[in-house]
Amino acid sequence: MAKDFYTAIENRRTFYGISKEAVISDERIQEVVNHAVKHTPSSFNSQSARVVVLLGEQHDKLWDITKETLRRIVPTNEFAPTEQKMDAFRSGYGTVLFFEDENVVKSFQEQFALYKDNFPIWSQQSSGMLQYVVWTSLEIEGFGASLQHYNPLIDDEVKKEWNIPSEWKLIAQMPFGKPTAPASEKAFQPLEERVKVFK
Ligand SMILES: Cc1cc2nc3c(=O)[nH]c(=O)nc-3n(C[C@H](O)[C@H](O)[C@H](O)COP(=O)(O)O)c2cc1C
């Protein structure tokens, strides 16, 4: 179902309450992610983004790994809310993992020495754009998603579990599922303080 761009921008929110109920097919999820990866821009068209989509038991495994990793470092008496949070992400349908290929970034740094310091920044910016496109695409398809950052704590186990190339740097995790609760109220700062137009 296509929504107009401005409505999709507005409706993309952080959804923490998500379920395992499918709203589209797994093939459609892959199609939407492929479309985002293909068409989201990157500096010098370097295409440094890499993505792993975890569905079903693979998704569950990610949040089990994250929970057990956090269990080792969060004090026992403070662990309950963390466990609840991990279980809430695990209650979703899938997770998109966003990586950037550091070999690509390095090769552009070598090729274009003048911009050497910028390529790692642009790589992060491109990844942010891709995250946003995937987030908004999932919203259009009827899922709710949020953006999480348990890297670098989980990097080693994730790489081992899914045989991820060592040069792929984990940037973010996006758990998604059918929304079970509305997004929370959001406050907006006055746009007059944030945008200036000169003409
Ligand atoms: C770069 C970036 C990093 C974020 N990191 C996290 C995060 O680690 N955990 C989380 O729950 N939300 C994270 N968020 C979500 C923001 O808190 C959320 O987008 C913001 O409060 C606005 O709410 P909305 O997404 O519902 O519009 C992140 C968002 C952005 C853009």
Question: pLDDT under 50 segments (min length 5)?
Answer: none
Mean pLDDT, to the nearest integer, reads 97
- Estimate the global geometry from the Cα principal axes: globular
The gyration radius over C-alpha positions equals: 18 Å
Look up the CATH topology.
NADH Oxidase
End-to-end distance: 39 Å
What share of the residues does DSSP label as strand, in percent?
15-25%
CATH class: Alpha Beta
The SSE string, one letter per element, is: HEHEHHEHHEHE
Number of strands: 5
| Largest beta-sheet characterization | 5 strands, antiparallel
- CATH architecture annotation name: 3-Layer(aba) Sandwich
Helix-strand makeup class: alpha+beta
Taken together, the total number of domains comes to 1
Helix segment tally: 7
> What is the CATH superfamily classification?
NADH Oxidase
Helix content: 40-55%
- Tell me which ligands are bound: flavin mononucleotide
In a few lines, what is going on in this structure?
This protein is an alpha+beta fold. Helices cover 45% and strands 16% of the residues.
